[in-house]
Design brief:
InterPro entries: L-lactate/malate_DH, Lactate/malate_DH_N, Lactate_DH/Glyco_Ohase_4_C, NAD(P)-bd_dom_sf. The chain is of the alpha/beta class. It contains 8 helices and 14 strands.
């Protein structure tokens, strides 16, 4: 039986719940949020939607104990509107949320895979892993997955090709020190310094284009949801299946003694083997800088936890 829990039912949590039900990716879905009326309303809405489906998902509300035998727990709490004031404005708020939910998740006996969407993603993922006391390979953040997708799309548009023709990754820290690792980027196997489909691609302009996609989405909607949910669904399918998926996710990287967004193979056990690609020295130095910044944020979270004890 495929069982998934979602904690936090904002824009992303609600859309994810809908898509899991509508695409028959889950048999039991546990929904948890601080707003009881929201959860009850969402259940009614999803059950109404199931009248058009030939499949059936059992929906369980506000029950941490039901997470005991869940395969995957998605943490999606947060308030993206805070980002209008400060880039890392969600750090303290979401750290507090981790301290509130972690004891209840631990008490349930949950031992599955955690996929964290909450920001700042790498630091909150690291804090979740510490508070839940799960092996690092089982606690993963979405990290720079969407940043990587935007970068590939920017390259593809400039080269007038499909993004499926582009490989490469963004490392570091989502909503922080992002490293567009151009050393890893190829188009149909060609490096970016070559003429690609008759185009000479400007790396600075490519980065601007990728960042503008994020700006347009946030400016117009106030949040990112569709791309995040689509990639999380891909990760869920991989974990519940027998395949592998390469993505730049927030993982524990021993090389940096902490969590950082790094290209990795995901599989049914969670984190598989990191993809150890050769970076330019300046890129490697930037990843270390990002890892240090994440560690500083984690220290703030840890101190906040002691203050509240």
């Amino acid at each position: 039986m495929r069982k998934i829990g979602i904690i936090g039912l904002g824009h992303i949590g609600r859309l994810l719940a809908h898509d899991l039900v509508a695409t028959d990716k889950v048999d039991q879905l546990v929904l948890i949020d601080q707003n009881d009326e929201l959860v009850v309303g969402l259940k009614a809405d999803l059950e109404n939607a199931q009248t058009a489906l030939s499949t059936r998902t059992e929906i369980i509300l506000q029950d941490y104990a039901a997470l005991k035998n869940a395969d995957i727990l998605v943490t999606a709490f947060g308030d993206s509107s805070l980002l209008e004031k400060q880039q890392m404005a969600e750090l303290t708020r979401n750290g507090k949320a981790v301290r509130e939910i972690a004891p209840q998740v631990k008490q349930s006996g949950f031992d599955g895979i955690v996929l964290n969407i909450s920001d700042p993603n790498e630091a909150i993922t690291a804090y979740l892993q510490q508070q839940l006391a799960l092996p690092t390979k089982q606690v993963i953040g979405i990290g720079t997955t969407i940043d990587t997708a935007r970068m590939r799309q920017a390259v593809a548009k400039a080269a007038e090709l499909s993004s499926q023709n582009v490989s490469g990754f963004v490392y570091g820290q989502h909503n922080g020190e992002k490293i567009f690792a151009w050393s890893t980027v190829t188009v149909n196997g060609q490096d970016l310094d070559k003429s690609i489909n008759g185009h000479h691609l400007d790396q600075n302009q490519l980065r601007i284009t990728a960042d503008l996609d994020n700006w347009y989405t946030f400016k117009g909607l106030g949040y990112n949801a569709s791309a995040v949910v689509t990639w999380i669904l891909q990760m869920i399918s991989t974990i519940l299946g027998n395949g592998e998926l390469s993505a730049s996710v927030a993982i524990y990287q021993p090389r940096y003694s902490g969590y950082v967004s790094f290209p990795t193979l995901l599989n049914r056990n969670g984190q598989g083997h990191p993809l150890l690609l050769n970076l330019y020295p300046v890129e490697e130095a930037a990843v270390k800088t990002a890892a240090n910044a994440i560690q500083q944020q984690l220290t703030i979270l840890q101190q906040g936890g002691k203050t509240n004890d």
